[in-house]
Specification:
The complex is a heterodimer. Chain A contains 8 helices and 10 strands. By secondary structure, chain A is of the alpha/beta class. The longest helix of chain A has 19 residues. Chain B is mostly helical. Chain B has 2 domains: 39 residues; 219 residues, MetI-like fold (Orthogonal Bundle), CATH 1.10.3720.10. Helices cover 74% and strands 1% of the residues of chain B. In chain B, a hairpin with a 2-residue loop joins strand 1 and strand 2. The chains are: A alpha/beta, B mainly alpha. Chains A and B meet through helix 2, helix 4 and helix 5 of A and helix 8 and helix 9 of B.
Chain lengths: 276, 289
């Protein structure tokens, strides 16, 4: 069965597919991160994120998966190695103009601002004209199923709805890559399933790239095209696997034997990574 | 994404289902009345007791006047007292205004540089812990204009709660939100305006409520120390003056006026605070449970 295939860790290797791979959106080469207290959080991590792909970083807590995501976002520089944005333009200071959206584990909304004001924030910070920002924020809210809730304050929304506002804020700039740091971990399972489906639908329609950090095997298998399993102490890539199951994935997929089989294999890989 | 998940809708029930409103008496909710009536009843009983004790024992007015006489005096001497009240109010509000302006600007400065905060904050603490009665005489000696001296005294007392609360508020913006602003390349000014200042708002308003009362206390204490004469003197001077002249009912009337002023300042500032926060802050939101 070829549904699951371990892949070489080194990103520079040419892919074995017939069609040549596109330039990656972002590529990490031998990236390490040591915190000021001496902890080596990430060691020699290499990873190429292909355009329009859906990648999960899966691992136990403390494996540095969030640290990798934050470094990609530019929140904390790596202590060694390079994070390369092949097609990004660079600003005057020589920094890549990262064209990304970030979703935190918590909704991280401003409690004093309404849903639409929260979604407008990235546009406001970029000095987009107010009328255009309002229109785009409205559209982003509608795309996450929150049309009609523009003027609700965060406290008036449930956990799932707050997370939707957070996703709307991340996609309102139409980023080419969406970084998500365990976004659904704090939600109940029913809401999480619903948001999983809605995220896949959004991804299918808008074709951005997703890097999704999670500690749930089931969630990563359900969502991803590719899962990078990480091991802890120090954080490193343990294995890199492609999930060859067709999209659209739906509730039928969740109960299929293929899904169960994939989960078993990924669990096994995760088990090995923890034991190693 | 298609539709809203029904499972996560319960947070907005209030908007969808019209909750039947509570019964009202004279425009106020039924549950509100005991909160007014109970303390009011106690107050009236105490005042009646006071009046009775004074009358039954024939206590002379220069020892203890009854509440009826005090209120009578308040109206009788209103011309003098209202001028004094106005003087005290002016000092109080000027001191509060300066305290707000300086307190907020200095805490913004502190939030922009850890070094400035580290270097100057201890001096703000010294300003706070030194009793105002101890330094008021010095200020009155060094500053020739009495009104300015009074203003400085009241300001010293009112300044610290605003400074320390606002500084705390500016530094307690959600760390992830700060990261988010960083991510979008926000400037310092943008972080301050769109994140730190709104986050500091509840803290600042908390400080403001304390400072409102304190600036009145500061003004009164300074007036006591200064003991300025003449017609344009504050309520504290009226108390001193009435004490010397054994006009005890007027002394009580001035005291009553000071208390009422303090209560009004507190209520007004509480109302401002409520109006600013009612949309989003936990402290201003009424909960069912």
């Amino acid at each position: 069965m070829n549904a699951l295939r371990a892949r070489a860790e080194e990103t520079a290797l040419p892919a074995k597919d017939e069609t040549p791979r596109e330039k990656p959106v972002v590529a990490l080469r031998q990236v390490s991160k040591r915190f000021s207290n001496g902890t080596l959080a990430v060691k020699d991590c290499s990873l190429a994120v292909e355009r329009q792909s859906f990648i999960s970083l899966l691992g136990p807590s403390g494996c540095g998966k969030s640290t990798v995501l934050r470094m990609i976002a530019g929140l904390g520089e790596p202590t060694a190695g390079v994070i390369d944005w092949p097609s990004a333009t660079y600003d005057a200071a020589g920094r890549p103009m990262r064209d990304l959206g970030f979703v935190f584990q918590e909704p991280t909304l401003m409690p004093w601002a309404t849903a639409i004001k929260n979604v407008m924030l990235p546009l406001k910070l970029a000095h987009v004209a107010k009328s255009e920002a309002t229109a785009r924020a409205r559209e982003a809210l509608a795309s996450v199923g929150l049309a009609g809730f523009e003027n609700a304050y965060p406290r008036e929304l449930s956990g799932g709805m707050k997370m939707r506002v957070s996703i709307a804020r991340a996609i309102v700039t139409r980023p080419s890559i969406l970084l998500m740091d365990e976004p659904f971990a704090a939600l109940d399972e029913i809401t999480r399933f619903k948001l999983n489906n809605d995220l896949l639908e959004l991804w299918r329609r808008q074709r951005f790239t997703v890097v999704f950090v999670t500690h749930s095997v089931f969630e990563s298998v359900y969502l991803s095209e590719r899962i990078v399993v990480m091991a802890a102490r120090p954080g490193r890539v343990a294995s890199d696997m492609t999930i060859e199951a067709p999209y659209p994935r739906d509730e039928a997929f969740r109960t299929s034997t293929l899904y169960a089989d994939l989960c078993r294999r990924v669990s096994h890989a995760l088990g090995e990574a923890i034991a190693a | 994404m298609s539709v809203i998940d029904v499972t996560s809708l319960h947070g907005t029930d209030a908007e969808i289902i019209e909750v039947p409103r509570e019964r009202r008496v004279l425009g106020l909710a039924v549950s509100f009345w005991p909160k007014v009536l109970a303390p009011l009843a106690i107050g009236l009983v105490m005042l009646a007791l006071w009046e009775a004790v004074v009358r039954v024992n024939h206590i002379p007015v220069y020892i203890l006047p009854g509440p009826i006489l005090i209120v009578e005096t308040l109206f009788k001497d209103w011309d003098t007292l209202s001028v004094s009240l106005w003087v005290t109010l002016q000092i109080t509000f000027m001191a509060l205004t300066v305290a707000v302006a300086l307190g907020v600007s200095i805490s913004v400065l502190f939030s922009q540089s850890k070094w400035i905060e580290l270097s100057f904050f201890p001096y703000a603490v010294i300003l706070q812990v030194t009793p105002i009665v101890a330094i008021a005489p010095l200020i009155i000696i060094y500053v020739s204009d009495v009104r300015v001296a009074l203003l400085i005294c009241a300001w010293i007392v009112a300044f610290f709660p605003i400074l320390s609360n606002t500084t705390l508020g500016l530094n307690s913006a959600d760390h992830n939100l700060i990261n988010l602003f960083q991510l979008y390349g926000a400037s310092r000014g943008q972080v301050l305006r769109h994140l730190r200042l709104p986050a500091a708002m509840p803290y600042f308003l908390g400080g403001l409520r304390i400072s409102g009362g304190l600036s009145l206390i500061g003004a009164i204490v300074a007036e006591f120390v200064a003991g300025t004469g003449g017609r344009a003197s504050g309520l504290a001077y009226r108390i001193l003056e009435s004490g010397y002249q054994l006009q005890i009912p007027r002394m009580f009337a001035a005291l009553l006026l000071i208390s009422l002023t303090g209560i009004v300042i507190f209520l007004v500032l509480s109302l401002i605070s409520h109006l600013c926060l009612r949309k989003w802050h936990e402290s201003a939101i009424r909960r069912e449970n």
